[in-house]
Amino acid sequence: MQNSDITTQTHGFVDDLQGITFGSFMSSVGVLLLTHMGFVTGQTAGLALLISYATGWSFGLVFFVINIPFYWLGWKRFGTRFVAKSFVAVAMLSAMTIILPNYLEFGRIHPAVAAALIGCMCGAGLLALFRHGSSLGGVGIVGLYIQDATGFKAGWVQLIFDAALFLIALTLRDPMTIAWSFLGAVVLNMTIAINHRRDRYIVQ
Predict the structure, then answer these.
(1) For an engineered disulfide with 60, which of 16, 80, 94, 123 has Cβ 3.0 to 4.6 Å away?
(2) Reported pTM
(3) Mind telling me which residue stretches traverse the membrane in this protein (predicted)?
(4) Where are the domains of the chain?
């Protein structure tokens, strides 16, 4: 199939609903595994997680509130539809991280395996959201903004932000936990950087 054929494809309402639900669900399971391991992460979720660790507040509520200021940038660059989809995705993830612990428990997991799983699950979730014109807000919106405006990959933008956030996280977690956490973040961002290619997959 030629690239021009791909660009004519569009997602319908049911496609978007499935994609956003899938993306939010995969990301929420990744976040729950992350908190189970005591790891930290990057992006807006990482900032919300650090606040949650430091204060004891619910991650879901902190994550939802902290994303609110970023919707303006999303609206300015990508329009109302993108912001609406992102708002739904963030709300879904926030709710799932509150509800799912009642139905999902993790046992013993080696940190390396956990880091890889977290990166893969969250990476798959974010790819689904991106491909359905959505995101999990915050740095994801900034990353997409920069990628569309300059061509600089969204994954690299997020990786730079993650590095700064992990330096702050060293004040709250031991170096080994940070090292395993960073592995998960690298897997996540490499997944996005390699697979989120507008020249390979473009939909309206």
Answers:
(1) 94
(2) 0.80
(3) 20-39, 45-70, 82-103, 109-130, 151-172, 178-195
(4) 21-195
